[in-house]
Please model this.
Amino acid sequence: MSSSVLYDAPGPKARMRNRLYTVVGSLAVLGLVAFAIFRMNEKGQLEPEVWNIFNNAGVRANIRDGVVTTLQVFAVAGALSLVLGLLLAVARLSDHKAVSWFATGFIELFRAVPLLITIYALWVLFLTYKENLGVVGENSGFWALVIGLTVYNGCVQAEVLRAGVNSVPRGQVEAAYALGLRKSQVMTMLQLPQAVRAMLPTMISQLVVTLKDTSLGYVITYTELLFAARQMANNIIVNGENPITAVVLVVGVIYIAMCLALSWLASWIERRGRRAKKGIAVAAATEPVVELSEIDQTLSGPKSGGA
Model:
């Protein structure tokens, strides 16, 4: 029986209690699922006509467009948040106090402000700017959502990278300085590569949060997946009611599938990072072969010539 420093192996009573908790919890979950199905059936949400709406080409096109728009926002915001996080992490670790204080204040400010408020404020700012210039702001919602996600998630990524840089052993940093490297060289050649390698699963996990937060675009009427689902649920009528439950379930499954794909990527990268590095094999040491005559000659010294 194996045990851990932080966890004692359970005894017979503890194992029996854990099995009991597992059975009770499973029954409770199954009961909730059965109750939800019963209520949906009672409200007519399981009728074939309700789910037949997804065979409509227009409904499928709206869902497809919502998924594409969501992925576009996520791709731009995810890439920009990684770049911003790198810049903020380097700035916060800077020896220049003004730069470090500015980066610290920026990070703490936008981590404290709710993301929804940031997105809404940017949207109003863009709309006001467009109206003052007399221009129709078609992309105002897109850029408000992208910049809001970039700023918030960039601050979180900066803290992740800073933790990775600080996790590099101090001895390696001191050895690099002893070799005559400047701080910029130590940061780019030693600390950042190890920090990215160590924190890559966490960074990708934060990208999952970025993907989920794209759903906040419905507040500013941006046509991402959640807003498209809301429009369909409000405009389609089946048996005298809006198929809200069916649409929410389908869209929820799509969100779960996208997030699980990113989570799987994070787990795969973590497993790859744990593998041992392959290096050059060191040749086995061999015993030198020395002749017996050479040993005798060495011990007796050089022979002198003469009679």
Remarks:
- The chain has eleven helices and no strands.
- Residues 26 and 46 are 24 Å apart (CA to CA).
- The two ends are 81 Å apart (CA to CA).
- The mean pLDDT is 82.
